[in-house]
């Protein structure tokens, strides 16, 4: 089984091709290609992702990213005769599918049409949640490919992708092979990204339930906004982490600790906007000069506050639902303090429970996780209509 996946929910244009063999539950996953083209540079000067710029960039990037993915997978064979009658009919339909992306259609016609249908079994695409203009480009592009190559199209929830990224581990035998790590259900997953912060209870591949989520800003969003307040670049997560690591000696104490919002609330919800505002007030009181001087300290205290809340609530959920595995996924899962604290606390307080962290290179948005999620959750019959659903829930 070979799946080609497309991901464009935010500011990464990503295409992956993966081959699945072995048993259904414990497949060997051959990563034929996994291309991610980041637009972070384009959005950095605005301090966050601009939806219409993201759409424009996806329109520009999808065709070259696909060609790279096909070449890397050795599936690029540009020898099709583009003159035959059947193909002319297809082109008419392709133009209709991509009518809102004329620039993309022109590129598609010129550069994708000549390729002989690659040896794949299905196409999967992120249909939501995400930025509407960005999602639509990916969905329409995947629809066009599915029509051109006569392949089924499997819509996938972006958060399901992040969930499955936590199940993967590197094979010791081949460097382009991944395996599914041994896990036991039920599991609790902490999914933390730029758009979402969710605690998800997983009883089987089909039974997943969100038991808590953020009431305002997502954890990654808070990192991005606080980075901006501190004069650091977008994306803020890695910047704040790096700034916090600069703190060697504490020569000056911040006037007070930052809050740990909702850490003791009885539910599993989160709230990070108050924490962001607390940083805003703190920097206002300190003034620009002192803020810059104390920046590593503020970054460290902010990071500790976010991590403490995330870890404490995940632990409590793991205890209440008596789970056998704790999973971590999403862009913020790259944060080393979060990885370290979550592993430590689970080991100490729930020694029978395993803690499964995603491979660092698969924490951010990528299409490989969309291919893997399609393999595990895709319906046998592809749906007739695939739409972008910006507010899709798990
Ligand atoms: O999953 P993701 O790549 O995109 C969305 O689905 O939103 O997550 C992106 C988020 C950004 O907010 C970014 O600042 C955050 O993940 N992030 C981090 C780190 N690396 C990325 N946050 C904290 N620490 C990091 N090392
Ligand atoms: Zn994501």
Brief digest:
This protein is about 45% helix and about 20% strand. It has helices spanning about 40-45, 50-70, 85-95, 100-110, 130-150, 160-165, 220-230, 235-245, 275-295, 295-320, 335-350, 370-375; strands at about 1-5, 10-20, 25-40, 120-130, 155, 170, 175-180, 185-190, 195-200, 210-215, 325-330, 355.
Q: How would you describe this protein?
A:
The protein is α/β, with parallel strands linked by helices. Helices cover 43% and strands 19% of the residues. The protein has a 7-stranded mixed sheet with strand order 5-4-1-2-3-7-6, sandwiched between helices. It has a 5-stranded mixed sheet with strand order 10-9-8-11-12, with helices on both faces. It is globular, with a radius of gyration of 22 Å. The mean pLDDT is 95. The site of zinc ion (ZN) has 6 residues, from helix 6.
List keywords for this structure.
394 residues; binds 5'-O-[(R)-(carboxyoxy)(hydroxy)phosphoryl]adenosine; binds zinc ion; 12 strands; 43% helix; alpha/beta; globular
């Amino acid at each position: 089984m070979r799946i080609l996946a497309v991901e464009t929910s935010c500011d990464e244009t990503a295409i992956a091709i993966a081959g699945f063999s072995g048993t259904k539950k414990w497949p060997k996953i051959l990563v034929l290609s996994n291309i991610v083209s980041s637009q972070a540079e384009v959005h950095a000067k605005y301090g966050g992702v601009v939806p219409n710029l993201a759409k424009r960039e996806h329109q520009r990037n999808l065709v070259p990213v696909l060609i790279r993915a096909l070449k890397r997978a050795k599936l690029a064979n540009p020898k099709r005769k583009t003159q035959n009658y059947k193909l002319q009919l297809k082109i008419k339909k392709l133009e209709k599918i991509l009518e809102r992306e004329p620039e993309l259609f022109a590129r598609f016609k010129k550069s994708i049409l000549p390729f002989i249908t690659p040896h794949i079994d299905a196409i999967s695409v992120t249909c939501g949640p995400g930025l509407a203009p960005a999602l639509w480009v990916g969905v329409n592009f995947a629809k066009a490919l599915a029509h051109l190559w006569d392949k089924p199209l499997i819509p996938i929830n972006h958060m399901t992708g992040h969930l499955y990224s936590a199940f993967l581990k590197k094979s010791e035998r081949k460097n382009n092979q991944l395996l599914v790590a041994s896990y036991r259900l039920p599991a609790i997953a902490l999914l933390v990204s730029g758009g979402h912060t969710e605690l998800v209870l997983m009883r089987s591949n089909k039974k997943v339930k969100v038991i808590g989520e953020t009431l305002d800003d997502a954890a990654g969003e808070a990192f991005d906004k606080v980075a901006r307040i501190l004069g650091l670049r977008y994306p803020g997560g890695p910047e704040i982490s790096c700034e916090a690591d600069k703190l060697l000696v504490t020569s000056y104490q911040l006037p007070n600790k930052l809050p740990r919002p909702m850490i003791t609330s009885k539910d599993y919800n989160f709230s990070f906007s108050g924490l962001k505002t607390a940083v805003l007030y703190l920097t206002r009181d300190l003034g620009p000069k002192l803020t810059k001087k104390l920046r590593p300290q503020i970054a460290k205290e902010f990071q500790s506050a976010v991590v403490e809340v995330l870890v404490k609530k995940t632990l409590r959920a793991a205890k209440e639902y008596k789970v056998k595995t704790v999973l971590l996924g999403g862009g913020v899962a790259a944060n080393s303090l979060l990885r370290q604290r979550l592993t430590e606390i689970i080991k100490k307080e729930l020694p029978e429970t395993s803690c499964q962290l995603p491979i660092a290179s698969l924490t951010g948005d990528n299409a490989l996780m969309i291919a893997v999620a399609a393999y595990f959750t895709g319906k046998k019959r592809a749906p007739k209509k695939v739409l972008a659903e910006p507010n899709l829930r798990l």
